[in-house]
């Protein structure tokens, strides 16, 4: 079966060792690899650390061949950060999170399960035997998630669409007509800013006035 397999490691050194092993043996009994990436959660966002592509895509479609790269593009972009924050809040509202993970998308899973400082391997793989890549991963005891590559491709397609819609909505809102309510808010800000500047100017004048008064008195005394 063609899968996108994600393994999240607690120890960075384990992730690098497993990645090196996959790079050295991309074709083994039970599995064949296409794209493989190494990803780290750096707090604010995810960062790709390394990658390789064997060129042995599991389909002729170039879009599928670039699937892992597309997934990483979503995870390292603004939508990945947004989804992670939203999914984290959603998990907190579930008494039994098992139902949440059953329905969760790959982007949700990686965005919420890859904690700050942790490293993940994401691979496009044809696993001819069930859970074949676990022969490499098992010694490091990572959390492993595998999803149908076709479903992940659809998920990426939908994620890109959502991102475009969000961008369009944001631009529309920023360019919205100045309604009465918005105009009132603008006036509030204008008055607040004006009052703040007036206060600064008044303090400045007071300081300058104190400095100038004795100087004028000395000049008059000299006369």
Q: Helices and strands, in N-to-C order?
A: EHEEEHHHHHEHEHH
Question: Uncertain spans, ≥5 residues at pLDDT below 50?
Answer: 58-65, 87-101
Mean pLDDT level: 75
Q: Helical residue percent?
A: 55-70%
**Approximate shape:** elongated
Q: Count every beta strand, where a strand is a DSSP E run of 2 or more residues.
A: 6
Q: What is the CA–CA distance across the termini? A: 102 Å
Task: Note down, in words, how this protein is organized.
The chain is an alpha+beta fold and 223 residues long. Helices cover 57% and strands 20% of the residues. It has helices at 12-24, 62-65, 67-75, 78-92, 98-103, 106-113, 134-137, 149-174, 180-222, and strands spanning 2-9, 27-28, 31-41, 46-53, 119-127, 143-148. β3 (31-41) and β4 form a beta hairpin. The longest helix has 43 residues, at 180-222. The chain is elongated and about 85 Å long.
How is this structure best summarized?
By secondary structure, the chain is of the alpha+beta class. It has helices at residues 12-24, 62-65, 67-75, 78-92, 98-103, 106-113, 134-137, 149-174, 180-222; strands spanning 2-9, 27-28, 31-41, 46-53, 119-127, 143-148. Strands 1, 2, 3, 4, 5 and 6 form a 6-stranded antiparallel sheet that branches.
Relevant terms:
single chain, 223 residues, 6-stranded antiparallel beta sheet, alpha+beta, elongated
Note the topology.
Elements: E1 2-9, H1 12-24, E2 27-28, E3 31-41, E4 46-53, H2 62-65, H3 67-75, H4 78-92, H5 98-103, H6 106-113, E5 119-127, H7 134-137, E6 143-148, H8 149-174, H9 180-222
Antiparallel strand pairs: 1-5, 1-6, 2-3, 3-4, 3-5
């Amino acid at each position: 079966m063609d899968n996108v397999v994600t393994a999240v490691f607690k120890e960075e050194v384990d992730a690098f060792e497993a990645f090196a092993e996959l790079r050295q043996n991309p074709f083994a009994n039970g599995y064949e690899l296409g794209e493989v990436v190494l990803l780290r959660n750096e707090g604010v966002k995810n960062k790709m650390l390394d990658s390789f592509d064997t060129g042995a895509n599991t389909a002729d479609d170039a879009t599928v061949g670039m699937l892992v790269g597309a997934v990483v593009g979503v995870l390292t972009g603004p939508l990945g950060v947004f989804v992670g924050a939203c999914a984290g809040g959603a998990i907190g509202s579930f008494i039994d999170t098992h139902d949440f993970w059953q329905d969760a998308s790959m982007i949700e899973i990686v965005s919420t399960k890859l904690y700050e400082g942790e490293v993940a391997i994401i691979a496009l793989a044809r696993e001819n035997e069930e859970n074949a890549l676990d022969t490499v991963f098992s010694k490091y005891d990572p959390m492993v998630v595998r999803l149908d590559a076709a479903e992940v491709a659809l998920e990426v397609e939908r994620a890109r669409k959502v991102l475009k819609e969000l961008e369009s909505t944001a631009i529309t809102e920023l360019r919205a007509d100045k309604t009465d309510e918005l105009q009132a808010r603008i006036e509030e800000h204008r008055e607040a800013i004006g009052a703040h500047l007036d206060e600064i100017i008044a303090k400045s004048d007071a300081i300058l006035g104190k400095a100038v008064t004795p100087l004028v008195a000395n000049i008059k005394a000299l006369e």
